[in-house]
């Protein structure tokens, strides 16, 4: 069971969360609150593992609440921000919030946030880490925050299947969608763990977790075949490297 | 105007005259002190410069507004006084001039110089007089021109804003009506659509009043719009989008594709039961961007005349916005590829947006 507190000054917003969370058998709501002070108090008393936190509330704002909780002697819950404003996304990312739900959000979007909460809790690390260093100390990026199609995404890099270069942009492909980001391949490759992400072509990086096989086509060209059947071009120069990684 | 402009420029003119006279004297064999030559001319033009500046400073309104009658009745005496004043001052400093005559009392010398210089002083005065008038005319002309240009820009912006407004509410209320309808039958679908509509509003609001936006932003909007349409057409439409990678940063008029896509659904894709196709492409052709939106349906004949069913409003709107932005330098064509496929082609000049990293919130984190 994951014990959760819901903090939002609007009754209907709390009601919506309560209703949607009924479909999540693992989540148990142990308290609801409508102001910042109440929230700090409730977290102190109930020590929840998860906090749904509105940013604009009477009294202090959501970030003040995080600060106040940090100064109490209780473990920091995993935080999912729920807000109508997108301008706090970077701050939320910096305080290691698990997710950032822009209102109105769907049940589906909430589920994916809870999935990430589960992963965070399973990793046994639910307190904010100082200075953003990776847990294993490697310094590789584990998640990316960006805006795509009017939404804010805190995307764990483990969900990226492949990355394609498009001039000044890169396209990140996940299970269901692709996102266009203004970024260079070289910069991105540098930030990603080479144990997982492999450059197979000048214009492609693949996530080895989602690679099915490497195939040599009739014309002698090689291609990476992803688990979902997608075929990604591979340059000769990268072939030996990827074979080596796959056989490790 | 600042006195610093007047006095040095007049004195430079004086120095030129001095130089000319000096060279002439030398050529004719006279040996003449260079210092005295420059002193006398320099002083003369220093006085002229100062007097002209005083004229500009205190008689400015008169110089600019005087009509012919007043120029004669007031300007003429003024020009005589101008010359007299100049000579009165100048004579004070050169008591020995004219050099080849016995020493003369002040007023005699003044009379001598005043007569000798009369025409020259008149010319200087009237040159300055008309120069000032000219400068003022020019400035007023420039101001007017600037104001006219500004007005033109404002007018175009207002027109564009009005055209854009026609798109949003129309589209917004249709979407709200769909949600209102879905609410009774499929709560999750309604929820989904509401989230997408919010995304669209966020994108639009964030954009503000900017008229030209990068194509990738326009496509982002189209993508959300298309996923909303997917819900209404539940998998009946297969769609493909191809955008040249180098065009992500191409500037296009905000919301110019949405009415075209909406039209493709309203008059084509909605008319067929299944296997609808929608293809959106953007290709670069040297210094142009070529957009092509192809949809399956019943062709142009069956979708009735443009004026009767609202076919025209959205597209005419796109057309006039393109015209306002690019003038003759763009094209918009609607044609039938075959009896079941309609294509809209839009060609606009290629303009790349300057790289602006600031608006992006992309950050990397490790934890």
Secondary structure layout plus pairing:
The complex is a heterodimer of chains A (248) and B (367).
Chain A (H helix, E strand, L loop, with lengths): L1 E6 L3 H11 L5 E7 L2 H11 L3 E5 L7 H10 L6 E6 L5 H6 L4 E4 L4 H16 L20 E6 L2 E6 L5 E5 L2 E5 L4 E5 L2 H7 L5 E5 L2 E4 L3 E6 L5 E5 L4 E4 L1 H11 L2
Parallel strand pairs in A: 1-2, 1-3, 3-4, 4-5
Antiparallel strand pairs in A: 6-7, 8-9, 8-12, 9-10, 11-12, 13-14, 14-15
Helix pairs in contact in A: 2-3
Chain B lengths: L2 H25 L6 H32 L2 H26 L12 H80 L1 H21 L4 E3 H19 L3 E7 L7 E3 L4 H10 L8 E10 L2 E9 L2 H4 L8 H16 L4 E8 L2 E9 L13 E3 L2
Parallel strand pairs in B: 2-4
Antiparallel strand pairs in B: 1-3, 4-5, 5-7, 6-7
CATH fold topology of the largest domain in chain A: Rossmann fold
Helix-strand string of chain B: HHHHHEHEEHEEHHEEE
Domains counted in the coordinates of chain A: how many? 2
Number of helices of chain A: 7
Rounded to the nearest angstrom, the distance between the terminal CA atoms of chain B is 66 Å
Number of strands of chain B: 8
Mean pLDDT of chain A: 89
Task: Give the oligomeric state of the chains in this entry, treating copies of one chain as homo and distinct chains as hetero.
Answer: heterodimer
Q: How many strand segments of chain A?
A: 15
Gyration radius over CA of chain A: 21 Å
Supply the number of helical segments of chain B.
9
């Amino acid at each position: 069971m994951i014990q959760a507190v819901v903090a939002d000054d609007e009754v209907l917003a709390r009601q919506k969360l309560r209703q949607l969370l009924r479909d999540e058998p693992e989540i148990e709501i142990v308290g609801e609150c409508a102001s910042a002070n109440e929230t700090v108090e409730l977290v102190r008393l109930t020590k929840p593992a998860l906090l749904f936190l509105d940013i604009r509330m009477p009294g202090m704002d959501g970030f003040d609440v995080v600060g106040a909780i940090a100064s109490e002697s209780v473990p920091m819950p995993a935080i999912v921000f729920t807000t109508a404003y997108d301008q706090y996304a970077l701050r939320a990312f910096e305080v290691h919030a698990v997710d950032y739900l822009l209102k109105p959000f769907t049940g589906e979007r909430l589920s994916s946030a809870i999935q990430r909460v589960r992963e965070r809790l399973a990793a046994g690390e639910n307190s904010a880490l100082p200075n953003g260093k990776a847990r294993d100390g490697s310094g590789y990026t584990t998640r990316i925050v960006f805006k795509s199609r009017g939404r804010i995404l805190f995307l764990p890099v483990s969900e990226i299947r492949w990355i394609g270069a498009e001039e000044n942009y890169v396209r990140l492909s996940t299970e269901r969608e692709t996102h266009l980001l203004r970024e260079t391949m070289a910069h991105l490759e540098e930030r990603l763990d080479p144990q997982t992400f492999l450059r197979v072509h000048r214009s492609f990086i693949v996530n080895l977790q989602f690679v099915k096989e490497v195939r040599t086509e009739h014309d002698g060209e090689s291609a990476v075949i992803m688990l979902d059947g997608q075929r990604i071009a591979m340059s000769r120069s990268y072939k030996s490297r990827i074979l080596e990684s796959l056989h490790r | 105007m600042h006195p610093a402009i007047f006095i040095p420029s007049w004195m430079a003119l004086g120095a030129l005259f001095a130089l000319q006279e000096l060279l002439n004297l030398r050529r004719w064999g006279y040996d003449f002190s260079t210092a005295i030559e420059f002193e006398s001319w320099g002083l003369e033009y220093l006085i002229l410069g100062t007097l002209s500046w005083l004229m500009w400073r205190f008689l400015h309104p008169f110089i600019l507004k005087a009509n012919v009658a007043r120029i004669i009745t007031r300007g003429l005496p003024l020009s005589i006084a101008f010359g007299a004043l100049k000579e009165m001052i100048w004579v004070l400093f050169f008591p020995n001039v004219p050099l080849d005559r016995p020493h003369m009392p002040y007023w005699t010398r003044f009379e001598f110089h005043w007569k000798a210089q009369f025409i020259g002083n008149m010319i200087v005065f009237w040159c300055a007089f008309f120069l000032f008038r000219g400068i003022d005319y020019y400035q007023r002309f420039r101001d007017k021109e600037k104001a006219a240009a500004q007005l033109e820009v404002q007018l175009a912006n207002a027109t564009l804003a009005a055209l854009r407004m026609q798109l949003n509410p129309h589209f917004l209320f249709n979407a709200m009506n769909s949600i209102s309808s879905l609410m009774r039958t499929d709560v999750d679908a309604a929820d989904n659509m509401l989230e997408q509509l919010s995304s669209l509003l966020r994108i639009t609001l964030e954009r503000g009043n900017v008229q030209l936006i990068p194509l990738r932003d326009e496509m982002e909007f189209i993508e959300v719009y298309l996923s909303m349409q997917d819900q209404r057409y539940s998998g009946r439409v297969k769609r493909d989008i191809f955008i040249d990678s180098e065009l992500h940063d191409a500037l296009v008029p905000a919301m110019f594709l949405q009415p075209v896509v909406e039209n493709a659904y309203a008059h084509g894709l909605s008319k067929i039961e299944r296997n609808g196709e929608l293809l959106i492409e953007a290709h670069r052709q040297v210094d142009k961007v070529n957009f092509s939106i192809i949809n399956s349906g019943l062709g142009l004949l069956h979708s009735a005349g443009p004026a009767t069913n609202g076919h025209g409003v959205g597209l005419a709107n796109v057309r006039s916005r393109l015209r306002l932005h690019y003038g003759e330098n763009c094209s918009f064509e609607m044609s039938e590829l075959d009896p079941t496929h309609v294509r809209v082609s839009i060609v606009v000049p290629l303009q790349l947006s300057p790289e602006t990293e600031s608006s992006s919130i992309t950050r990397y984190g490790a934890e």
